[in-house]
Write a structure and sequence with these properties.
Number of strands: 12
Bound molecules: aspartic acid
Strand content: 15-25%
Order of helices and strands: HEHHEEHEHHEEEEHHHEEEE
CATH class: Alpha Beta
CATH superfamily: (Glycosyl)asparaginase
CATH topology: Glutamine Phosphoribosylpyrophosphate, subunit 1, domain 1
Strand order of the largest sheet: 4-3-2-6-5-1-11-12
Helix content: 25-40%
Number of domains: 1
Largest sheet: 8 strands, mixed
Shape: globular
Structural class: alpha+beta
Radius of gyration: 18 Å
Number of helices: 9
Length: 336
């Protein structure tokens, strides 16, 4: 026991020292000129390997990730807000059957689709979320409506749908979310869990950070289980004083370890760099606990970090200085 604590302390110290030297981040040296905007996206993390992903599927994923990134870049490039970029990007991924959000949402044990989403404004800590919704075409838009047009932060189930409908958010028949592939996943992995979620974090020209996450949760989930994605501080968090974070992975761990807020706190209170804070939480704290997954994060200086502790994560980033990349597999981290 004492040995374990000692090893942990040494590991922490080593990581901390390396943080102090300034870890290289996506987008280059932290000392470099601050870009006027930056954006990062993810489309879920998990057992994503070259053996499991056909060349065609890989091309499709890269295509939609690229389209989502382009949309975010266009919004931020013309001076749009980080909130608009986050919502716009996530809507594209929600409309794609490739990702476990909106149209591609996974199935519950009962053979339904129950979705969660959240959005947060780093400029004032306003936040909105919906959980367990079954008929809202774009849950991220409903989440934003909760943030901007209600006194609440989170709404669930039928009440959330009613509210969304009253505010003019598009409602669809639950059969819209049926995709054969996801249904087969439920049938094949009845004793298993599957990951996948979409998220976006952005810094706009005005210096405001925003984060958003949208998901169908985990395949085979039961009893109206709700994951980390709609929980502010767990799967989604944004604060102009620190960073914006969107997570993907085994939600129960992200909730228990308040992952997104933990990363923010390490920056705000301990002055760790973005990459040091995100890596510490994902690759050390979460990994040691057995929680698989990853995060995307951006800070007010346009630094981007995208650590994950599993085989792969659909991810990408772009900045006003022209830096851009789309990645899927773990070994692509070298390119950052
Ligand atoms: N974090 C999501 C959840 O637990 C799932 C995922 O990201 O794949 O609901």
């Amino acid at each position: 026991m004492t040995g374990k604590i000692y090893i942990s302390a040494v590991l922490f110290l080593l990581l901390f020292i390396s943080c102090g030297r300034g870890v290289k981040q996506a987008g280059g040296d932290e000392q470099a000129a601050v870009p006027s905007w930056a954006i990062a996206i993810h489309g879920g993390a998990g057992v994503i390997t070259r053996e499991r992903l056909s060349a065609e599927a890989e091309a499709e994923y890269r295509g939609v990730l690229g389209q989502a990134l382009d949309t975010g870049c266009a919004i931020l490039g013309r001076g749009g807000s980080s909130l608009d970029a986050v919502e716009g990007v996530i809507r594209i991924m929600e409309d794609s059957p490739l990702f476990n959000a909106g149209k591609g949402a996974v199935f519950t044990h009962e053979g339904r689709n129950e979705m969660d989403a959240a959005i947060m404004d780093g400029s004032n800590l306003a936040a909105g979320a919906v959980a367990g919704v079954t008929d809202i075409k774009n849950p991220i838009t409903a989440a934003r409506m909760v943030m901007t047009s209600s006194p609440h932060v989170m709404m669930a189930g039928k009440g959330a749908s009613l509210f969304a409908a009253e505010k003019g958010v598009e409602i669809v028949d639950p059969s819209y979310f049926y995709t054969e592939e996801r249904y087969q996943q439920l049938r094949k992995t009845i004793d298993n869990v599957k990951h996948g979620t979409v998220g976006c974090v952005a810094l706009d020209r005005a210096g405001n950070l925003a984060a958003g996450t949208s998901t169908g949760g985990m395949t085979n989930k039961q009893y109206n289980r709700i994951g980390d994605s709609p929980i502010i501080g767990a799967g989604t968090y944004a604060n102009n004083n620190s960073c914006a974070v969107s997570a993907t992975g085994h939600g129960e761990y992200f909730i228990r370890y308040t992952v997104a807020h933990d990363i923010s706190s390490l920056i705000q209170y301990k002055e760790l760099s973005l990459d040091s804070a995100a890596s510490l939480v994902v690759n050390y704290k979460l990994r040691e606990a057995g929680g698989t997954g990853g995060v995307i994060a951006v800070d007010c200086r346009g630094n981007v970090s995208m650590p994950f502790n599993c085989e792969g994560m659909y991810r990408g980033y772009a900045r006003s200085d022209g830096q851009r990349g789309i990645y899927i597999f773990a070994d692509e981290r070298e390119g950052l």
